[in-house]
Amino acid sequence: MSLHRRTLLTRTGALGSLAAFGLPWWHPQALAQASGGKPVTGGVLNVAVAPEPTQLTSAFITTMNIGMLSSKVLEGLVSYDLNLRPVPALATSWDQAADGKTLTFKLRQGVKWHDGADFTAADVEYTLQEVWRKLHPFGRAAFANVEKVETPDKHTVVLRLSAPAPYILNYINTYGAQILPRHLYAGKDVLTNPLNNAPVGTGPFVFKEWVKGSHVRLERNPHYWGKGPDGTPQPYLDGIVFKFIPDAAARTVALEAGEIDVALGSIIPLTNLNRFKDKARYSINTDDGRYLSTIFLAQFNVRRPQLQDKRVRQAFAYAIDREALLKIVFLGYGKPATGPVPSSVVNYYSDQVRKYPLDLKRAEALLDEAGLKRGAGGKRLSVTLDFDGGSGPTASRPAEFIKQSLAKIGVEVELRAGDTATYLRRIFTDQDYDLMISSLHRLPDPTLGVQRLYWTKNIIKGSPWTNGSGYSNPELDRVMEAAADEPDPAKRKALIVQWQQIVQEDVPLLELIEQTWVTVATARFRKQQPQGDGLFASLADAWLEPKGA
Amino acid sequence: MDLGRYLRNRLLQVLPVVLGIALLNFLVLQLAPGDVVDVLAGEAGAATPEQMAALRAQFGLDQPLAAQLLAYLGRLLTLDLGWSYRQNMPVLDLILSRLPATLLLMALAMGFALVLGMLLGTLSALKPGGWFDHVVAVAVLFAYAMPTFWLGLMALVLFAGKLGWLPAGGMVTVGLQGPWWVHALDVAHHAVLPALTLSTFFLAVYARLMRSAMVETLGADFIRTARAKGASEPRVLAGHALRNAALPLVTMLGYQVASLLSGAVLVESVFSWPGLGRLAFEAILARDFNLLLGILLLSSLLVTVINILVDLATALLDPRVQLHAPHGVRA
Predict the structure, then answer these.
(1) Beta bridge partners of A519
(2) Matching SUPFAM superfamilies, A to Z (chain A) (predicted)?
(3) What is the number of alpha carbons within 13 Å of residue A321 lying toward its C-beta?
(4) DSSP 3-state assignment of A529?
């Protein structure tokens, strides 16, 4: 799909955040999914998710595939539109005080849990205090400034903050802050509650069964609060079956054979997508994962003497052709990254940073300056490159691309594949590596998604996905910490721009490709409202066109 | 020696073997870098060192190796397979829920391999060097040489993707209503492709074995005698030759149960078959060692028990074979 179009779309920002059909007619999504078709009631949707989740609750874990499933049963306060602006879910409105220290949420009335109990402010208060703040990997940071939660009435929640936390509004969907039923969790151990595997929620679908290794079955919630624009009760679907198909090629066949209708989260190999290009039969959606804002990166271990010199890291950055990497390895699904904040994060993205176009001469010159002259056989230095071979058979392709790129400037790369456990141990516990590659979510808010990778205080031996490069820059720390509690949007953006500039000058990480998450579906699958967090959509507004329609 | 005593002796010998295997498994798994807590924290997206330390303490991973081993063996003796930390349920429940699928797949694959292998081998042996013999030889070589998972994928693309005759994976149609035979047919429908795929390699081995055994047997004196007595050709084949020629097959079967299990890992992955093989593979990736040790223990039990059954079958097929436990006292 045309990237140019997408940038245009995100730049204009002319889409009303609540406009269900706010997409221009020429936008591919408008054609694919927000068609003028009237929703059809009935039918069971078959969805493929891989790998099989380990539980069905996202309230204290950020694993994507758990979120893709639990979001149909359990809900959050908001969801996000294509520009990552909040849209009402269980909260109907929200208000931030001028000093940024009070957040007020008005909750939807008349909502019931699947067991018939009323949904109230007490549920939100309980989950925030006992689950998100204590157990959720990002929630701990997101809600750290919450001093007090007040519930003046059954449908109002007020957060009193010790310091402004503007990022909270960017992390309260069903993936970031999923609301659990207080009456079924309070007083019990949250982590071992059997309901984590058989959730009771407020969402459009009710959990029915989980046959491990095979499928999860959900049925329509007849008492759901949602209504379509014309007043028809939602959800339109009778049910959803999630099928667990471990083999990627088998998923492709299942989609062609019509045994699954939707494949979520880029689980159809990019190399197979050409089989689903026929718009009359299939739709390919590349917006569902905007909320995650994932960047594929190569990270230096700056503890290594030879990689401490930023000129060496800059040389590597000039030697890797992002455009070619995008075309050859990612087959065009994504765009070249310019810094740590992806362009999908419209509010904070800036391209006013140091750029690294392909420039081998400059790369060589920088290495010469850094004292790494070409030696015998033209070699300057040897480095290892670690990657997680457990993430599929194609995991080695970007690694091979980088190896070939760096060979041109006299850097020899030795590839080391390990499975996930081996890889994590090597990078974060043993810290015994030179370069590694990975894809990491940056989320709609840099304070939550990006700071963790660059912050000195997040260099934590033994914990995965922390600041594993070992990069420490007091000036950057100051800027990031200031941005975290700056209530004024303009000032906050200025700080985050400065942050992007510092990082792109020092390049402890090479931010390479803004990845798109690809959803492939049968053309019969329709949805009224495109979402930036579509991977975690409740699917209340989704339907299946009858066969032969 | 009477059968009851024979079985008792054999089963008593199984115990030390299985325990030895369990010990070996435990020690080998310690060599893998990283542990289940690394994986859990990696999946969660973040975790504090305190949380990770607490988890390791909870799972007993902070104990010295000797203590962990003793605890594991102690649990084994009380038949407690422990808890799967990643799947959040008792290992025994997990295994029991997945075992029927794998046993069904293995039994069907073995059945296909035996029946088809014997048939093809026998028909080839009737006219060694004939056209049929040549065709089977090429087909067998192909089936033997091709990676099982690739054959499976190609079959999937053809029969599920292009033709739409068979389902593309799974074991049942979700939400199917009807009497028991509807469900049985549904499972059979789903099982055809994976079972045939898993059987190809073994089928090839058996067809070759059967052919050579048959060629040899058909030239034997007792066959000539039978024919001279005027026995009909089918009777000669089925009654005399087959019984003798099948002996090496049965012996082979005992050896191959273990490789059948490892083949199941790939086939279950390709066909989304909810069995133990796939579970074992995922347990390795997740360093879920309680679960993996449980599956390995069960597999070793399965293999040893099937080998006992094979010995019994050999004795039934060949009256010359005496049942006696190895190193046992002859009755």
Answers:
(1) A285
(2) Periplasmic binding protein-like II
(3) 15
(4) coil
Arithmetic mean of pLDDT, A518-535: 95
Burial of residue B64 (CB within 10 Å: 0-12, 13-18, 19+) is exposed
**Of A440, A435, A445, the residue nearest A411 (C-alpha):** A435
Question: Cβ–Cβ contacts within 10 Å for residue A478, how many?
Answer: 11
Contact flag B168-A253 (C-beta cutoff 8 Å): yes
Cis amide leading into A51 (omega within 30): yes
In whole angstroms, what is the distance from residue A314 CA to residue A323 CA? 17
8 A C-beta contact, residue A509 and residue A519: no
Which tokens is A311 given? 């000129």
Query: B159 to chain A, minimum CA–CA distance in Å?
Result: 10
Give the integer Cα–Cα distance in Å for B276 and B284.
Answer: 12
How many angstroms separate the CA of residue B19 from the nearest CA in chain A? 28
Whether A424 contacts chain B with CB within 8 A: yes
What is the chain B residue with the closest CA to A219? B175
Please state, as a whole number, how many other Cβ atoms lie within 10 Å of the Cβ of residue A444.
30
The residue assigned the tokens 């595997």 is A197
Instruction: Please give the DSSP secondary-structure letter assigned to residue A179.
Output: P
Q: Is the Cβ–Cβ distance between A294 and A439 less than 8 Å?
A: yes
Closest residue of chain B to A134, computed from CA coordinates? B51
pTM: 0.88
Q: Is A63 on the interface with B (CB under 8 A)?
A: yes
Nearest Cα to A131, choosing from A202, A193, A69?
A193
| A and B: number of Cβ contacts within 8 A | 152
Instruction: Give A222-278 pLDDT, tens digit per residue.
Output: 999 999 988 899 999 999 999 999 999 999 999 999 999 999 999 999 999 999 999
As a whole number, mean pLDDT of residues A281-308 equals: 96
pLDDT in tens, B261-292: 888 888 999 999 999 988 998 899 899 999 99
Chain B residue whose CA is closest to A251: B168
The answer to whether the CB of A514 falls within 8 A of the CB of A273 is: no
Hey, is B90 helix, strand or coil? strand
Query: b vs e for B98-121, b when ≥16 Cβ sit within 10 Å of the residue's Cβ?
Result: bbebbebbbebbbebbbebbbebb
Query: Taking a contact as any Cβ pair under 8 Å apart, which residues of chain A between 243 and 282 contact chain B?
Result: 243-247, 249-250, 253-254, 256-257, 259
Tens of pLDDT along B59-72?
A: 999 999 999 999 99
Chain-chain contact of B269 with A247 (C-beta, under 8 angstroms): yes
| H-only helix segments in A392-506 | 396-407, 420-424, 446-449, 451-454, 474-484, 489-506
How far, CA to CA in Å, does A119 sit from each of A207, A295, A515? 17, 37, 37
> A399-431, pLDDT tens digit by residue?
999 999 999 999 999 999 999 999 999 999 999
Go through the domains of chain A in sequence order and give each one's CATH number: 23-73+203-289+517-549 (3.40.190.10), 76-189 (3.90.76.10), 291-515 (3.10.105.10)
Partners of residue A217 on adjacent β-strands = A209, A241
pLDDT tens digits, one per residue of A437-493 = 999 999 999 999 999 999 999 999 999 999 999 999 999 999 999 999 898 999 999
Spell out the residues 6+ positions from residue B99 whose beta carbon is closer than 8 angstroms to its own: B275, B276, B298
